[in-house]
Amino acid sequence: MRILDAIDDALIAQLRQSHEFFWLDATGSTPEQIRHLGTVLDLHPLAVEDSIRFGQRPKLDTYGETALLVLKGGVASKPEDVNPHPLEEIHCHLSGDFIVTLHRGPFPELHTVRTQFAQRASARSEQYHVYKIVDVIVDSFFPILSDLDEEISDLEDAIVAGAGRKQLTEAFRLKRLLLVLRKAVVPMRDVFAREIEVIADLAGLESDSHDYFRDVYDHLIRITDELDSYHEMVSGCTDLYLSAVANRQGETSKQLAIIASIFLPLSFLTGFFGMNFSWEVGHVLVGQWAFLVLGLGTMVASAAFMWWWFHHKGWTGSDG
Fold it and tell me: Transmembrane stretches, by residue range (predicted)?
């Protein structure tokens, strides 16, 4: 199999005339270049129009002896970074003579498989090469899933250590990212479940084994299951955050209730002895002992008794 990274009319014509299978991987092609490529390769006008517009949902469209397979690949980033563009849309034009992959941005995984094909001349079938290209696009989601697993674990630890608004924002960000990834993976899974035999049966495409594409389907099922489980874990993080905030508010309310309860008898005592009735002032509140015992003494004793009672009931300690 020959590998091309630019549109070479003469070389493409030579390869098609000799029926030598080739792979053209183009990045950032302009609409004019895509239209020209469609003319050179006899692509269907609707397929060319889809590749010019991009923004397509994962799908498989057949046009006679050619097919357009639209895939979404995962663009990995470090766990601590926010990735504004987690997906790369890749259009695969297939026929018995070639496979063309078009994408707007760089996709390192395709470059890696290109290097592997170039370094190891393989006697594998054309269908195997198509499978490897599709497989590397699908498998690009696994590094993202690994990073998400680490991020969710760190988020859980952060919430347990001290739930704050930052953790809630992170939980919502992860939930939105998981929804974006799922909207890309589920349509691909459905395509490989229903229509992938169309690729294996393309006219002129040397067949090998249909098990190749079943393997891709198995990977998509695994990715979908992991995305669903991560979504549940993030929802659990949100519930954990709300529970931690509620517990913290309850602890604060308990502390305020204890303080108010201690000051309740103090307010009563100061109010009672501050009424200044003539008999009380002349017969009870007389001398230094009245100030120390009846005044300060009863207040200290009542506060100490209230604190002992709360401690005896186990209300003064934390819930942990």
Answer: 256-277, 289-310
